[in-house]
Amino acid sequence: MHPLEFREPIETERLVLRLETDADTDAIHSWQSRADVCQYLLYEPRDRATVATRIAEDAQRTRLEENGDYLQLAVERRCDDRVIGQMYFTVDNAEYSTLEIGWVFHPDVAGQGYAAESARALLALGFETMGAHRIIASLTPENTASVRLCLRLGMREEAHFVEDMFIKGRWEDTGIYAILEREWSAIPA
Fold first, then answer.
1. Are 88 and 72 in contact (CB under 8 A)?
2. CA atoms 130, 74, 7, 92: torsion sign
3. How far apart are CA 57 and CA 35, in angstroms?
4. Which CATH superfamily is domain 9-186 in?
5. Which H or E run includes 16?
6. CB 86 within 8 A of CB 30
7. Which pLDDT tens digit goes with each residue over 107-136?
8. CA dist 150 to 102, 119, 176, Å?
9. CA 189 to CA 150: how far, in whole Å?
10. How far apart are alpha carbons 173 and 160 in whole angstroms?
11. How many whole angstroms from its chain centre is CA 103?
């Protein structure tokens, strides 16, 4: 797998995926502070200061090469420059050319295809630019919207781990979805 230094935003038909900046704090806080959004995330609702600190840390992460390297990208609508979500992309296993993808969007934009459009752009980056062999998504199986998105992207369910993570004071299941480069290449453009 080829290393990647993220320097230029990724543009899709309706969106721009770019590194987060301090100016995104209020937009990102608008969903990271919501219990309904955080229900399926690894963290509880965040206050504005925590969001600002995370953005400052994440903005320094620009390289994908070794296990644990990640990008946390703002998803901005081109029509109004509004930040509506975040995409996460990380090196899960460099030796086996495996990346992991994740997403979170403001509930106000649910059902408009923004998550799918963003995810397809990152899948293309992973497979076509970086030469990844496989890209996975790890999620809470009860998050049916994310499960449906994985399936729309051509990913298949590979595992359902029962009570394998202790999060927010309780045991949670994890679902693993994946797609291989050859499967991605077979999907019509």
1. yes
2. negative
3. 23
4. Gcn5-related N-acetyltransferase (GNAT) (3.40.630.30)
5. strand 15-19
6. no
7. 999 999 999 999 999 999 999 999 999 999
8. 10, 9, 10
9. 17
10. 7
11. 3
